[in-house]
Fold this protein.
Amino acid sequence: MTINTTAIVILLASFLIMVFLRFPIAYSVAISSLLCLAYQGLPLATLSQQMIKGISSFSLMAVPFFITMGVLMGSGGISEKLLSLADACVGWMTGGLAMVNIVASYFFGGISGSAAADTASLGSLEIPMMVDRGYDKDFSTAVTISSSVEGMLVPPSHNMVIYATTAGGLSVGALFLAGYLPGAILAASLMVGSYFISKKRHYPKGEKFSLKRLGKEFRTSIWALSAILIVVVGVVAGVFTATESAAIAVIYSLLVSIYVYKGITWKQVWKLIDSCIDTLSIVLILIATSNVFGYCLTTLHVPELAAKAITGVSSNPYVIALLLNLILLVLGMIMDMAPIILISTPILLPIATSIGIDPIQYGIMLVLNCGIGLLTPPVGAVLFIGSAIADEPMEKVVKAQLPFYVMMIIALVIITFIPAVSLCIPKLFGY
């Protein structure tokens, strides 16, 4: 083997071994990169240089603000307001509380931008509520964790910011706009699946639809929904950068949570900021170490080799698109979302663009694949959170989850093969 080939084997084999041994991902990435650099005889100062370079990005300043905004709004009494709004919208349907669960996740996702935060915040309210109304606990949990993935597509999402930076400086505004319709398609597909299951199991309907009640709940929730408008409209209209809009949204979220909804006090704010720092430290360490890993991949020409390998299987763009989705789904089963974005994007994005997939569309595909991965064993973080909240064995939740996997794959196929789903709204706004 040549030096380059051996270095690639050392890099990837050591990384995979540590992942399967359940090392923290940041350590796995850093140690495998260190071994690769050492084998090539490169100065180890390259490790620290590339780590610093990875986090020295103005765009990444938006990430801590979006995380803080999500934590503040998620803890500030927003969940109950959005549940009530969703109930007024769709609670009258067959399986009404399942539909409420899905629609509430669409609303809440636009605030938290996190599937884990959605499950932890809404799930603790929704799952007991559904069980009390006669829904099976495993079904209630499956609906909750499946719908939480909508929050990763609906803006603002800090994962979109990470992808935009990793992909070479894509427009964050375009990515934000691109997520709305795919998020709605995912919600609709989950609602269809929930309807048929609810019909078969004779789950109850909620109260009859009332326009008066809908108006009342909308007025109550407008303070929460306005946070999304500040971010998205500000970025799209060019009034703010993504970082500036995120900072303004944090201040807005703080004031609304304390003075309007009165869900938190000033004393509690400091504890919430502590949890934000914990999350942010994990994200930034991953970004820093993944940049070294990406540097090794690039210098060893792994993206070009991967492209040749995948296109060698078939020259059909539809087959290649399916292969890309399959690779991302498998990665999602064994890794968390941020490292997948950081590690796979330099390798797979060039392949996607070579078959005509727009980088914006690929970003939506990537995020949805990662979201499905969060619901699958052995590493699915959201699956574990949902099981813990419901106090339900993971095996039962996975079994109840099977129909929803199918519905999510259908949504993924639509997003993959109909580019307009992701691109029509950004194009409408001139991106």
User: Anything to note?
Assistant: Residues 3-428 form one domain.
